[in-house]
Amino acid sequence: MKTKPIRIKTMGFTANKLRVKNMRGKIKAAALVLCTAMLVSGCKKTPNNTLANSSTVSSQPAAPSAAESTSSEISSAEPVSSAVSEPPAESTASAASSKPAPVSKPEVKPAPAPAPVNPEDERLMQLDNTRRGYGQGNAKDSANRPTGAVAAQEKYEKYGAVFIAPPSNNVYLTFDLGYENGYTSKILDTLAERNAKGIFFATMGYCKSAPQIVERIIKEGHILGNHSVSHKSMPTLSVSEMKKEIQGLHDYIKTKYGYEMFLFRPPMGEYSTRSLAVAQSLGYKTMNWSFAYKDWETGNQPDEAWAQQKMLNDVHGGAIYLIHAVSKTNAAVLGNGIEGIRARGFEIAESPRPS
Asked: 100 Cβ partners below 8 Å, 6+ apart?
């Protein structure tokens, strides 16, 4: 005998009563299996509000499950970066254990304080450093003195500069020594023969390459002048560099020969108010010139007769002659030039040394 199915209408759906009963039975069976598994594994049901309400962490936490134990071992060996997993806002034992170890920041050392500036250097740095290239020019006054040299002397004398000596019958012969071309010894011979003294401005390179000539200059009573360590344009340098260019050669000569230099000639005749003051601060006078001509091109030497006549025509009281010792012409005409200058009433003088 077949039983007629009874139709039940619930929430708009129709279900077979028998099928409902079967489903309930299956659900109960599944729940029973789940509870049994939980009891076997030792899991405990945690109240929903434990994390939210707990303000302290138990010193004896519950034993972790197998899955939790594996996770704990991995995290203790290699802490998880906060960039990968950020801990929850709540303070929990698991959150604390999963925080990465703090990354130590590299020690940042403060920049060293700048060395204090010497008050004297600070004063020098305030002076004008405009680079000026010197030349005495062709204009002359009634005493045959170059007006360019006279004007420069008036302007820069307070900085220890000498462009022309005061009016007198004195004439000063100065020789620049950048490198040796075989004529300096002959020039020294001529000065000795004529009983005249000269001023020789040498660079560090020259002093080291021709020590026998440097020694002879000092021994025979001439003045050895400072032409810098490396022949650089002084206004292109800092105050400390200017001092090194002058003091470096000064110390070398004093140590090697026991000689104290006191005259400085700026390389290429380039100077500034600042460079003149720097030399002055080191106890130097900067000596330029009031007579010069194109004698330094060794491959294009001036005619000897013309050169000798120019030396005589341009002579003046307080003249400072610039003569390059690399010049074959200068070596040849120097003796006659000295005699011609004296014949006109002038004397070859030695620059007074500081007292």
From this structure: 79, 80, 81, 82
Query: 221-248 burial, b if ≥16 CB within 10 A, otherwise e?
Result: ebbbbbbbbebbbbbebebeebbebbbe
Active site residue 176: yes
DSSP string for 272-283:
-HHHHHHHHHTT
Task: Count CB-CB contacts under 10 A for residue 19.
Answer: 10
CB 261 within 8 A of CB 218: no
Per-residue pLDDT tens for 324-346? Answer: 999 999 999 999 999 999 999 99
Which residue in the list 128, 176, 227, 295 is annotated as catalytic?
176
Largest pairwise CA distance in the chain:
167
Burial of residue 56, with CB atoms counted within 10 A of its CB: 0-12 exposed, 13-18 middle, 19 or more buried: exposed
Predicted model pTM:
0.68
* Residue 251 a catalytic site member: no
Residue matched to tokens 């120019």: 310
Which of these is catalytic: 222, 227, 250, 324?
A: 324
* Cα of 261 vs its chain's centroid, Å: 29
Report residue 112 CA to chain centroid gap: 15
pLDDT tens digits, one per residue of 98-143: 556 666 667 777 777 766 778 889 999 999 999 999 999 999 999 9
Instruction: At 181, give phi and psi (nearest 5°).
Output: -120, 15
